[in-house]
UniProtKB/TrEMBL annotation:
NCBIfam families: PRK05889.1. It comes from Aeromicrobium piscarium. Keywords: Biotin. This is Biotin/lipoyl-binding carrier protein. Gene3D superfamilies: 2.40.50.100.
């Protein structure tokens, strides 16, 4: 089962923290958005492995946009 890690706010993808294949736990930071000079983490909604990164650093994302996919069938 693949679960998307979604942006909680409109912002610029400042930094991608996780890479494809990295293990993550619930709440681990996958990427960091920058908006109004604040850094907002995008966190993994489930434990597993990052199967795909869907954005690039510098890209603008909207609230609810998927930033990465987490394969929750594999344990972290």
């Amino acid at each position: 089962m693949t679960v998307p890690a979604r942006a909680d706010i409109v912002g610029n993808v400042w930094k991608i923290v996780a890479r494809e294949g990295d293990p993550v736990g619930i709440g681990d930071t996958v990427a960091i958005l920058e908006t109004m000079k604040m850094e907002i983490p995008v966190v993994a909604p489930a434990a597993g492995h990052v199967s795909r990164i869907l954005v690039a650093e510098g890209q603008i994302v909207q609230e609810g946009d998927p930033v990465a996919e987490i394969d929750a069938t594999l344990s972290a």
